[in-house]
């Protein structure tokens, strides 16, 4: 029995030692922020399921970014004017009414206290008594006098007398402070009313971007237009590619921004936006789409943000309109339908066809692959590479099908022509 117990103990100790040796080391993964966990690249993410592409900028131009855990809220109060302008209309109107009401009540209370301390309330019916403010017999009348003073109405029924120096000082303070409040609140309302955000709603972008051949080169294109007759002065367009990337050192950069050239060096990014224009980006070696083909495009998780800026002709204020395109909104092998027609003495724009596209013959290879094929075959990119390869194959087949007699006869004719040329 003792031996059995000793043997069982040895077995258990051996198993425990094996478990200690073979057990893996517990590695504690570092805690990452929620955004970093959600935006991990696919090859290092545990969840390899297909995720829906989250927009960085919505189609209406609003940025889909929320600021959380902002502890230094006092910074909003240091720029109170911009904070009030950025508020929604219902909060702005509420603050507008509350500021005036509070100032009227505050100075009305002070006017009532002056009258109460001086004893004016006890000598209301005494005609020989000179009050601070005539016909002020309670808080309501003091409140009405405060409104008349700050708004400079002056009905003439309640008047301050020269026997009240404290009332004269209070009158000066309320007049100056009332002017400051008026300038601040009216200026805030004027800036909010004249904001060019509504003007940006009449600047439209096409619902889709297209990729097709233009002048023998593969190009990414989208269309912009202005619905108003008053034009945007000094209009300019720019585009950004929003795509997460991982550096060679292993650093993951979520929502990395890359410039997309839409004519910066040639001046094509400066627009005369009288009629709808098609903005073109040439896919070359400097383009982020250089190695993307038609089959690879739907697999990419990217977003193209386009920004149109300019000054409003009527007000001179800067206006900015934004939109974006995700991979499902980029059509490969399409072009935009023309919208400009020549009428009797003028040009007419048909905005019913503004978003319409039509399919066109476009190679499905990437711009890099097309350039390599063109350099090998010495063919311009405007030709269809596949069709040219088919033509070469047909020519080789025809030459193989010819009989040896025809080849000899043709060679003999060529020899005779050479003899004649020598003679």
Automatic annotation (TrEMBL):
InterPro entries in alphabetical order: Ig_E-set (IPR014756), IRK_C (IPR041647), K_chnl_inward-rec_Kir (IPR016449), K_chnl_inward-rec_Kir3.2 (IPR003275), K_chnl_inward-rec_Kir_cyto (IPR013518), Kir_TM (IPR040445)
Region (Disordered): 390-423
Protein's cellular compartments: Membrane
GO-annotated biological processes: potassium ion import across plasma membrane; regulation of monoatomic ion transmembrane transport
Biased segments, Basic and acidic residues type: 391-412
Record keyword Repressor present: no
Protein name: G protein-activated inward rectifier potassium channel 2
Gene that encodes it: Kcnj6
């Amino acid at each position: 029995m003792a031996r059995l117990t000793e043997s069982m103990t040895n077995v258990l100790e051996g198993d425990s030692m094996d478990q200690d040796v073979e057990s893996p080391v517990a590695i504690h993964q570092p805690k990452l922020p929620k955004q970093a966990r959600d935006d991990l690249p696919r090859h290092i993410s545990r969840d390899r399921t297909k995720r829906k592409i989250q927009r960085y900028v919505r189609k209406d131009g609003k940025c889909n970014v929320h600021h959380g855990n902002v502890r230094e809220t006092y910074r909003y109060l240091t720029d109170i004017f911009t904070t009030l302008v950025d508020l929604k209309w219902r909060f702005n109107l509420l603050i507008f009414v509350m500021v005036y009401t509070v100032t009227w009540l505050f100075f009305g209370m002070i006017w009532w206290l002056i009258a109460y301390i001086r004893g004016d309330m006890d000598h209301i019916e005494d005609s020989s008594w000179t009050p601070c403010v005539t016909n002020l017999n309670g808080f309501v009348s003091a409140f009405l006098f405060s409104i008349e003073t700050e708004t400079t109405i002056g009905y003439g029924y309640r008047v301050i007398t020269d026997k009240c120096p404290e009332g004269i000082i209070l009158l000066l303070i309320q007049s100056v402070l009332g002017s400051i409040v008026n300038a601040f609140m009216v200026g805030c309302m004027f800036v909010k009313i004249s904001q060019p955000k509504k003007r940006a709603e009449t600047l439209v972008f096409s619902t889709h971007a297209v990729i097709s051949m233009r002048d023998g080169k593969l190009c990414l294109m989208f269309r912009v237009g202005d619905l108003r007759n008053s034009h945007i002065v000094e209009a300019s367009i720019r585009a950004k590619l929003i795509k997460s990337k991982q550096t060679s050192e292993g650093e993951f950069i979520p929502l990395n921004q890359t410039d997309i050239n839409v004519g910066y060096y040639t001046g094509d990014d400066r627009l005369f936006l009288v009629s709808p224009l098609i903005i073109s980006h040439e896919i070359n070696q400097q383009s982020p789409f250089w190695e993307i083909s038609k089959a690879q495009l739907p697999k990419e998780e990217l977003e193209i943000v386009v920004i149109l800026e300019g000054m409003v002709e009527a007000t001179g204020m800067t206006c900015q309109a934004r939109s974006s395109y995700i991979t499902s909104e980029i059509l490969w092998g399409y072009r935009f339908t023309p919208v400009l027609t020549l009428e009797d003495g003028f040009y007419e724009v048909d905005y019913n066809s503004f978003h319409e596209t039509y399919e066109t013959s476009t190679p499905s290879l990437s711009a890099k692959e097309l350039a390599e094929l063109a350099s090998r075959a010495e063919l311009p990119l405007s030709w269809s590479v596949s069709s040219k390869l088919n033509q070469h194959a047909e020519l080789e087949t025809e030459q193989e099908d010819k009989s040896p007699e025809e080849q000899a006869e043709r060679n003999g004719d060529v020899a005779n022509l050479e003899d004649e040329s020598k003679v």
